[in-house]
Write a structure and sequence with these properties.
This protein is of the alpha+beta class. It folds into 2 domains: 14-50 and 102-319, no CATH class; 353-458, Sandwich (Immunoglobulin-like). It has helices spanning 29-47, 80-101, 104-109, 111-127, 130-138, 143-168, 174-182, 188-208, 210-216, 219-222, 238-241, 266-269, 290-302, 314-317, 327-349, and strands spanning 52-53, 56-57, 59-62, 67-70, 73-75, 233-236, 309-312, 353-359, 366-367, 373-383, 389-396, 402-404, 408-411, 416-425, 434-443, 450-458.
Length: 460
C-alpha cells in the first residue's frame, strides 16, 4: 500500500491558528443534564453572597481582616490547616471522579466550560446557527454585521462584569461592594480587581475558549495518569461504525459495505474542543457528551441502534467487564473520605477560643511590702466567635493564691485582647521554688467555650 504524504503534512503546528471552532447547538439527554446542573451552580454562585446569617453575610472570605466566615464558623489564619485539608480532599475527590468518569469535571461543571457555552448561546441567539455564523464571519463588513457584533460583544461584556462583581462579593461585603460601585465610591483596588476578572472572563469565554482547555489548563495534561482500562470515557465504536460513509435512509449499509456511521460530521460540529471523537481517545476531549447526543439523534433518524458513541471503558469495548472495585478508584475514595472525616473531627473538637500566657520578661518575681511573692503575667485572649464574649479568668495550682487584675473581661469578635494580671502567694505555702499553675478562661454565656494554659510560678 502506498501513502501519498506531502511535506507540509509533516510539519507539526503548535497552535491551530487557521481554525475557528463554530459550535453547533445541540439538544439531548446529556445536554439537558448539563443545563440543569449549570443552572443550579450558577444560581448558587450568584445567590450565596446574599444569604444573611445573624445580621452578617453568611459566606465571606474577608482577606482584609484575615477571616473566612462560613455561617456560624469563622476561620482565622491559625485555622488554615482546615483550608489545606479541604483542598486536599477536593484534589482526591477530583482524582476519584476522573478515574471513574474521565474528565466530566471539565465537561459539566468547570467554570471555563460553563461560561464558554453561555457565551456561545448568546452568540447563537444573535448571529444565528453555526452555518449562519460562518457565513457572517466570512462576509464583508456591513451595517448588519457591525450591529450584530456590537450587540454580542456588549452582552458579553455585561456578563463578564456581572461575573466579576459576583466573584468579588465573596471577598467584599456584597451590599458594600454594589453600593460603592453604583455610587462610584469604590477604592481603586476594588475597581482594579473587578475589571481584571471581567477582562479574564471576557477573554477566556469569548475568545480563548477551547484554547484555554487545550493549551493552558494543566489538568488536561496530567489527567491521563489517572485513567485506566476501566475509566468511562466518551468512545466511538469503530467496529460498528466503520466503514463510515453517507447513504440514504432506505439504503442497506451492509450491501454497500458500510458501518453505522453515516459520516454526518455532527459529532465534530457540536464539540466545544473541535475534535473528531472517531479518531480515538484525545486529551482535548472534555467528556461533555455532546457528540453522544448528536450521534444518537442521527442514529434515530436512520433507524439504527443508539450509542454508536457512548460512555464506556476500554475493557468494555474489548468485550471484558468493567471493574468498579479497582484498587486505584477505591484508594482515591478512601483518601477522600478519610480527609473529610479528619476535618469533621477537627471541627467537632475545635474551640473558637485561643489563649496564651506570657510571663514578664523583666521580672522573674518580686516581693511586695507585705512580704508576699508576686509573679506578673500577660494573658492574650483571642475571641474566634462572631459574637461579643465575656470571659472569666481563674487560676489553679497554688492554694491561697490571689489573682490581682480583672476577673472578667469582654472581648469583641475577632479581637485579640491582652490582659495583664499578677498572681500573689505566700512563699511559706510553697514547697518548691518553681510551681506549676494553670490559667483557665471560660465564657460566661457558654461554659463549653473554655481553654486552659499552664505556666510557672517562681519564688526566691
Amino acid at each position: 500500500m502506498k501513502f501519498d504524504i506531502k511535506e507540509e503534512d509533516l510539519i507539526i503546528k503548535p497552535y491551530k491558528q487557521d481554525q475557528n471552532i463554530y459550535v453547533r447547538e445541540q439538544k439531548g439527554r446529556f445536554q439537558q443534564y448539563r443545563r440543569v446542573l449549570n443552572w443550579v451552580l450558577m444560581l448558587t454562585f450568584i445567590l450565596v453572597p446574599f444569604i444573611p446569617y445573624h445580621g452578617q453575610q453568611a459566606v465571606l472570605f474577608d482577606v482584609a481582616n484575615q477571616q473566612f466566615r462560613l455561617f456560624s464558623l469563622t476561620l482565622w489564619p491559625q485555622d488554615f490547616m482546615l483550608v489545606a485539608g479541604l483542598f486536599m480532599a477536593g484534589a482526591f475527590a477530583l482524582f476519584f471522579v476522573t478515574n471513574w468518569l474521565g474528565r466530566v469535571w471539565c465537561g459539566y461543571v468547570c467554570p471555563q466550560t460553563v461560561w464558554t457555552l453561555m457565551f456561545i448561546w448568546v452568540e447563537h441567539k444573535i448571529e444565528g446557527t453555526r452555518n449562519q455564523r460562518i457565513k457572517l464571519d466570512n462576509s464583508a463588513l456591513s451595517n448588519k454585521k457591525a450591529l450584530k457584533k456590537t450587540i454580542k460583544h456588549t452582552i458579553w461584556l455585561i456578563m463578564s462584569i456581572l461575573t466579576a462583581t459576583t466573584f468579588m462579593s465573596y471577598f467584599v461585603p456584597v451590599y458594600q461592594l454594589y453600593g460603592d460601585l453604583i455610587l462610584w465610591q469604590s477604592s481603586g483596588l476594588i475597581v482594579f480587581w473587578v475589571f481584571l476578572f471581567a477582562l479574564c472572563t471576557y477573554g477566556n469565554a469569548g475568545w480563548l475558549r477551547e484554547k484555554m482547555c487545550i493549551y493552558m489548563c494543566p489538568y488536561s495534561r496530567f489527567q491521563s495518569v489517572m485513567f485506566d482500562k476501566d475509566t468511562l470515557l466518551v468512545t466511538y465504536d469503530s467496529q460498528r461504525g466503520e466503514n463510515r460513509g453517507p447513504r440514504k435512509r432506505s439504503d442497506d449499509p451492509k450491501s454497500k459495505n458500510l458501518g453505522d456511521c453515516v459520516d454526518c460530521n455532527l459529532c465534530v460540529e457540536v464539540c466545544p474542543a473541535g475534535i473528531d471523537i472517531r479518531n480515538g481517545l484525545q486529551y482535548e476531549c472534555i467528556n461533555c457528551g455532546l457528540c453522544i447526543d448528536a450521534c444518537n439523534q442521527t442514529m434515530t433518524k436512520f433507524g439504527y441502534a443508539k450509542n454508536l458513541i457512548q460512555y464506556t471503558s476500554e475493557n468494555n469495548t474489548n468485550g471484558q467487564p468493567t471493574n468498579p472495585w479497582r484498587l486505584k478508584l477505591v484508594g482515591y475514595a478512601v483518601f477522600t473520605l478519610a480527609i473529610f472525616i479528619i476535618m469533621a473531627i477537627w471541627l467537632a473538637v475545635r474551640v473558637p477560643l485561643e489563649i496564651s500566657v506570657l510571663r514578664d520578661r523583666n521580672t522573674l518575681y518580686r516581693m511586695n511590702f507585705e512580704g508576699l511573692i508576686e509573679n506578673p503575667y500577660t494573658l492574650t485572649i483571642s475571641n474566634k466567635t462572631q459574637q461579643l464574649q465575656r470571659f472569666s479568668i481563674e487560676v489553679s495550682g497554688i492554694e491561697q493564691a490571689q489573682l490581682h487584675g480583672p476577673k472578667t473581661v469582654s472581648v469583641l469578635p475577632g479581637v485579640m485582647q491582652k490582659v495583664p494580671v499578677t498572681l500573689v502567694a505566700d512563699g511559706y505555702d510553697l514547697s518548691q521554688k518553681v510551681t506549676d499553675i494553670t490559667f483557665t478562661v471560660t465564657a460566661l454565656d457558654d461554659a463549653s467555650l473554655s481553654l486552659s494554659k499552664t505556666s510557672k510560678f517562681y519564688k526566691n
